[in-house]
Amino acid sequence: MNTETPTLVIAGGSGFVGKNLIHSLLEKTDFKIVALSRYERESHHPRLEWRKCDLFSLKDLSAALVGCDQAVYLVHSMLPSAALSQGTFYDFDLLIADNFARVAEAQGIKHIVYLGGMIPKKEKLSWHLKSRLEVERTLDKGSVKVTALRAGLIMGASGSSFTILQRLIERLPILVCPSWTETKSQPIDLDDVIRVISRVLLTPELQGKIFDISGSETISYKELIKKASKLIKMQRTVIVWSIIPIGLSRFWVSLITGVPRDLVYPLVLSLKHEMIASPEHDYPFKKEDILVSVEESLKKAMEFQVSPILQGYTPVQKDVRSIQRLPLPKGKNAMWVATEYFHWLPKMFSWFLRVDLEGNFCRFYFLSPKIVLLVLELSPERSTPDRQLLYIRGGLLAAGPQGRGRLEFREVLNGTSIMAAIHEFRPALPWYVYLWTQALVHLWVMRRFSQFLKKTSQSS
Fold first, then answer.
1. Structural element, H or E, at residue 165
2. Calpha distance 86→214 (Å, rounded)
3. Sign of CA dihedral 227, 230, 234, 236
């Protein structure tokens, strides 16, 4: 790609904000845009290039970020990314952000704009908001300048929060709502968000800072429901019943709207927090960039038919991604954790498991060397003391050639935690047998290993 004009990479380019941002930047700026997608996509504009990229892969990201000057990071991994995804959305988000931060620094990207969530002060954060803060800090851990734009509810057609709102109104004449619907927020229109991102990309003085971006009107979710109902001339009665537990309300919202639980649950949990902009992080160009009222935003969004919510990754084959966050003992690194794991595991299963470490290979045996369960090969060129990468090479538990199937141990959060992650693994066992045996055993093993690391940390 020609580097005379600035090149911007957008991670999350096919999402709600990303696709609208791309359209606006192509129309109003001279940026060349590299948009990342898990799937092959065609570009119909001379300044737009789609690059296929699995964000869980450092190798993919390294190729995808070549020649880019700035980045916009819009990734939130709340939907499944494999036929079986074991782990929490916040651990998935953290690992992807760590990948992006590492590669952005290595590729010489100068500036990242991150669109995250507003962070209330002096409150115990939901995991949805805590994850946004972890991602923000992870992207900002190196030498790349990071601008964090913190927003609450973003109003726009096809946005997940707005889609939930619209479907509730359309499907229920009487809405019995939990107390979180009375929580105050300052919604912002999608077009205003795009104006802010565009200005930050083009204005060096704004870069490397934190800004709370919000609309000028403070309103509750309950009041939004009433306003939206009035606009589409559907009379709705809203009753707030404070005794409804949040777990039940999450299930209820998912059931009525048809939106996947993986997407609904974190969003609902975050609604208990007031999303009010802090004067400490005041955005200086509010009058120029934040122009759309709540009513106008609702009107615009409701002119469009609600699009179906994405269901996440549709697997071509039965693959597994499993990510667990473990404590990292002080003074230890990922190399130590990987070595300790291979010594600890046969002690845990001493009655049947043998582990042989020879050169870069690790072999797991059942009872004797004749029955090889799993073969792993360390990749020395892609491993460092803070990240150990092992490719899955075979064994009775692995189905045929594994391609990019791999296990990694990686330090995150400034060396306070370790991620144990399996990517693109294809099991040899029949799928439903695997789900109820090997998959569950792996989770149990990771929990026990986590306890072992915690004890080690306490005794050191």
1. helix 160-171
2. 35
3. positive
Q: How far apart are CA 183 and CA 218, in angstroms?
A: 10
Q: Encode pLDDT of 218-258 as tens digits.
A: 988 878 877 877 776 666 666 666 665 656 566 656 666 66
Interatomic CA distance for residues 343 and 406, integer angstroms:
19
Cβ within 8 Å of residue 330, ≥6 positions away: 457, 460
Beta strands 320-327 and 84-86, pairing class: parallel
In which residue are the tokens 């972890």 written? 134
Q: Where are the domains of the chain?
A: 7-302, 320-459
> How many other C-beta atoms lie within 10 A of the C-beta of residue 30?
9
Which of these, 182, 113, 123, 95, lies nearest to 150 by C-alpha position? 113
Top-tier CATH class for 7-302: alpha beta
| Whole-number Å distance between alpha carbons of 310 and 431 | 24
pLDDT in tens, 149-173: 999 888 887 776 667 777 766 666 6
| Contacts with 314 (C-beta within 8 Å, 6 or more apart), sequence order | none
What would be the CATH architecture of the domain defined by 320-459?
2-Layer Sandwich (3.30)
Give the global pTM: 0.89
Q: How far apart are the first and last CA of the chain?
A: 52
Strand order in the sheet with 84-86: 84-86, 320-327, 417-425, 406-412, 387-394, 372-378, 361-366, 353-358
Q: Is there a common fold for 7-302 and 320-459?
A: no
